[in-house]
Design brief:
mainly alpha, two-stranded parallel ribbon, elongated, disordered N terminus
């Protein structure tokens, strides 16, 4: 079968493995085209040495052969021709792109640019009205996901490259240990900022909106001074809490049409739309600032560093760097 007609993915083994293990990888799926030439890889200095001898250099013919193999590598394709499969996730696609970022370009600039893109997406989300257009909102989410994906791959590769090969499992575990609590803490932080934004404007809005529709001032004041958490989750659930907050005695004292308007499906969402948008702007501003802080930290980490066992740190060759990400 010719290469143009062979379906699947070309996988290049860039580390020395036992022959039976290499054959096992190719036998897992017949669509996998295994590219493995041990003579082009650095020899091992000890068992488990996957990086190999840092003094190893390919001759001119070997370097040409290695570049030829790199050109044949594919990520996800329907065939090994130029037709590619589009990823459903913008973050996954951007991470794949960043992982194959050419060695002649800086991984630092890729990661930094990703955070700047994410910050710009959050800044643009601030400009969206409460009754936003979904296509534009989806586009901004896509841009945000692309920025996050561009940051993830080179940042993770930088962490893994900076430690000895024997300690990369520990480094990966520590990275996940800090990352997972960060996800949880960010939810608490952003909800706190959201509630703080609601608390600064929601009481006044509720007081004005209820008194304007005939609710007694003392009842409207009591409702307006309640914690905004209930209103926040009522908005998320699409529930109008006015009937519960006012109670049947107050509603029965109002004209039937006015009571029906207050407890309808449109009054409460419109009433809290401005305070809700104010809280979201605070959250998006904080997110954009954190992305810019991450961009600065990414830029300041300097050039690419790869830890070498038993040798002075060296900058990898162009072919080696393109594979290590």
């Amino acid at each position: 079968m010719s290469r143009a007609a062979r379906p699947g993915v070309a996988v290049l083994l860039a580390v020395r493995l036992a022959d039976e293990l290499a054959r096992g990888i190719g036998a897992v799926d017949p669509r996998v085209e295994l590219l493995f030439e041990p003579d082009l890889l650095p020899p091992r200095r000890y068992p488990g040495d996957h990086r190999g001898d840092p003094a190893f250099r390919r001759d001119e013919a070997g370097e040409a052969r290695w570049r030829e193999l790199l050109e044949r590598v594919t990520i996800t394709t329907t065939t090994t021709t130029t037709t590619t499969r589009t990823s459903a996730s913008s973050t996954c696609s951007a991470t794949t792109f960043a992982a194959t970022w050419p060695a002649s370009r800086s991984a630092t600039s890729c990661a930094t640019g990703g955070m700047i893109i994410a910050a710009a997406a959050f800044a643009l989300l601030e400009l969206e009205p409460a009754d936003f257009s979904y296509p534009l909102f989806a586009l901004l989410l896509l841009v945000n996901g692309i920025g996050s994906g561009l940051f993830t791959a080179p940042n993770t590769a930088g962490i893994m490259n900076s430690v000895p090969a024997g300690q990369r499992g520990v480094a990966s575990g520590m990275r996940a240990t800090f990352q997972n609590p960060g996800f949880v803490l960010s939810i608490g932080l952003f909800f706190s900022l959201m509630i703080a934004g609601l608390a600064s404007s929601l009481p006044t809005t509720l007081l004005r909106g209820l008194t304007a529709n005939g609710v007694p001032a003392e009842v409207a004041t009591r409702v307006a001074n309640l914690p905004p958490v209930g209103s926040l989750f009522a908005a998320f659930l699409g529930y109008n809490p006015v009937q519960t907050l006012l109670g049947p005695q107050v509603l029965d004292s109002l004209p039937p049409g006015r009571a029906a308007f207050l407890t309808g499906q449109t009054y409460f969402p419109r009433l809290i739309s401005d305070p809700f948008a104010h809280g979201l702007r605070i959250v998006f501003t904080a997110a954009a600032l954190l992305c810019l802080v991450a961009a600065v930290a990414s830029w300041l980490r300097g050039g690419r560093y790869v830890h070498q066992e038993g040798a002075e740190p060296t900058i990898p060759t162009e072919a080696e760097e393109s594979m290590s990400a």
